[in-house]
Amino acid sequence: MEYLSLMLGSLATNCYLLKLGDGKCVIVDIGEGAPVLLRRLETEKLTPCAILLTHGHFDHIAGVEQVREKFQIPVYLHALDVPMLSDRNANLAYWISDSPFQAVQAWQTVADGQTLTIAQKDFTLIHTPGHTPGSVCWKCEDLLLTGDTLFHMSRGRTDFPGGSDAQMLESFRNSRRWRGITVYCRDTTRNPRSPLKKNTIQPCEVFNTCQLKKQKHQNHFPSSFPDTP
Ligand SMILES: [Zn+2]
Predict the structure, then answer these.
(1) Which of 42, 49, 73, 229 lies at 20 to 30 Å from 169 by C-alpha?
(2) How far is the CA of 22 from the centre of ligand 1 (A)?
(3) Is 225 inside any structural domain?
């Protein structure tokens, strides 16, 4: 599938434009910096049909409402991350961001394994809790968009409120559904702003990588996130 990627906001969070043909696209995650995305849509002459969310942290949703409202398009996510669409504490904006946060006003929830058909393309939600309770990967054709669940040779943090290391490992144990899929994820091992890497991975590789990285990950990010009020 043809796609474009942008990095939005202070955390340079990935935002994807998946091209559906006829000038249509689906947007995956919109962090801070909706104006940057809106300019890009105009430059590329793309009209969005829907917004898919990998999870509810502010750096993946802060720009959603601006784009949703402008185009009047549906927003899809897993039910367990819905509270983050309006709660600045739950979505971490209160702790990390100085920018004003616009709550998402309308959304639709999608269950594990459910497939949405948008402009004749199928998008399947794979629930992969661990980074957040409602973290998901979105699969479309040969593409798997992993959000903050899986990075190149690494995996997402589990030390934020609602995160679970046990759930994250279980998500990877259940990753048989990923077999042979080409995964696009950001390489955070060298430079956090580095471009996407393309890998074809097998489930056992994913699991091994995550086991391997667990200790380093946990040492690097001790569970020091402040208690929520
Ligand atoms: Zn996140």
Answers:
(1) 229
(2) 32
(3) no
- Ligand 1 centre to CA of 53 (Å) is 11
Q: How far is the CA of 57 from the centre of ligand 1 (A)?
A: 5
Tens of pLDDT, residue by residue over 132-189, are 999 999 988 877 888 888 876 677 888 888 999 889 888 877 766 666 566 665 555 5
At 190, which CATH number? 3.60.15.10
Contact 88, 62 (CB under 8 A): no
Taking a C-beta distance cutoff of 8 angstroms, is the pair 77, 86 a contact?
Answer: no
Residue 226: inside a domain: no
Q: Could you report the per-residue pLDDT of 109-120, keeping only the tens digit for each?
A: 999 999 999 999
Structurally, the chain folds into a number of domains equal to: 1
Instruction: Indicate whether 31 belongs to any domain.
Output: yes
For 198, counting Cβ atoms within 10 Å of its Cβ (0-12 exposed, 13-18 middle, 19+ buried), the class is exposed
